[in-house]
Amino acid sequence: MTPLLAGFALLILSQSAAAWGPLGHRAVGRVAEAMLTTHARGEIAQLLADDLDRDGRPSGRTSLAEISLWADEIRGTDAARPGWHYDNMPACGAIATGRAWCPQQQCASGRIEPMLAQLADRNRPLAERRDALKWITHLVADLHQPLHAVDYAEGGNLVQVEFVGRIDPAPWTLHGAWDVRLVLFALRPSRDQPQQPSEAAVQSLIVLARRLTPAQRAAPVGQWLAESNRLARQVALDYPRFSCRDVPSQPVLLSVDYQRLARRVIKEQLALAGARLATVLNRALDAP
After folding, report:
1. To pair with 102 at 20 to 30 A between CA atoms, which of 76, 81, 92, 140?
2. How far apart are CA 159 and CA 170, in angstroms?
3. What is the pTM of this model?
């Protein structure tokens, strides 16, 4: 098996484990790193100087891209918080007030601001601030994945899909397609580094991120959620025979047009997530 196929197989096996998968999360980290202030960059370097992996060993990680997967890596440990990775906001009908889908703020949109406050508090232990940094880096990206902002079919995990014009070595869920397979189409990893976005793809995302208006970069977390929920309704769930009443019993065929639009949305969301991650980190870490 070639390195690219081996990496692709690994991504398939992990498709339900992480929003955006390794490629998307690392891309968001890379975009944010390019937009950090000098002071924020220095603070992050200090926080990560003694970073530990899930087993308490020195990780050697020094960048946002490298820590972006930590919140998924700790699954199965006491530190894991599975409910923090998504918002089960309704996909069908009107959105009721009161945020009933996020009890006690235990969802992605409910945890970002508390974690930013923890990160900004210089009186807290470094280990707590470092964990907050790692959570923020991950959750900002999660919240920009449209299927992490809807409740339908467990965020699309119960919908089986196939891709028109492509043959895959394993079946996909709709959620896994948006986490991994469609991201592969968008970020074009190399054969030598199948779990790293190509440098050309990263640079194109940085260009997109720098074109965003100040208002888009500084939008509140609630707007991120609303945008992702809208994209889930209008794009991710816009497949043949979609019904709010039923989950398809047979695999859904995703057309070439669907794939093309999804790739464009994914690039835009990754760039937006990176720009917003840099914005909130700059705000939290710049000199008081």
Report:
1. 76
2. 14
3. 0.92
